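Dear colleague,

Thank you for sharing your sequence with our group. We've completed the structure prediction you requested, and as agreed, I am returning the results in plain text so they can be pasted directly into your records. Please verify that the sequence below matches your submission; if there's any discrepancy, let me know and we will rerun it promptly.
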Amino acid sequence: MGWIVLIGIVVAIIAYVVTMGIYQKRFLKTLNEEEFKAGYRKAQLIDVREPEEYKKGHILGARNIPLSQMRQRLKEIRNDQPIYLYCESGFRSARAANFLKKKKYTNLNHLQGGFRKWTGRVKSNA
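Please find the predicted structure tokens below.
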């Protein structure tokens, strides 16, 4: 009987992930590195990783507004310009986009695969 409950939980989680992915595609553009490079200089480039991660290396020109501080620092993000988000793998930037969408922000983009897959120029503070 316990394994039936476990299977039900796994199915529910999978359904949630698929549903969120479909929902996000309506408002969040997932860009490959070339598409990201083509547009981020004309946009607000925001690294949503924690400060320690940002200091180890970040995309040149990015501002660090960690997902954990986004609610408090929302006024630093303009709604009249495109927003390019990234994190280490793409998960936190998608969460940040969900939060910004709820706050009526538009033109949301994030880097497919995150900083881990980035091969462009970086800056390191370490």
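Summary note from our side: The beta strands are 28-31, 44-47, 58-59, 63-64, 83-86, 108-111, 122-123.

Kind regards,
the structure core
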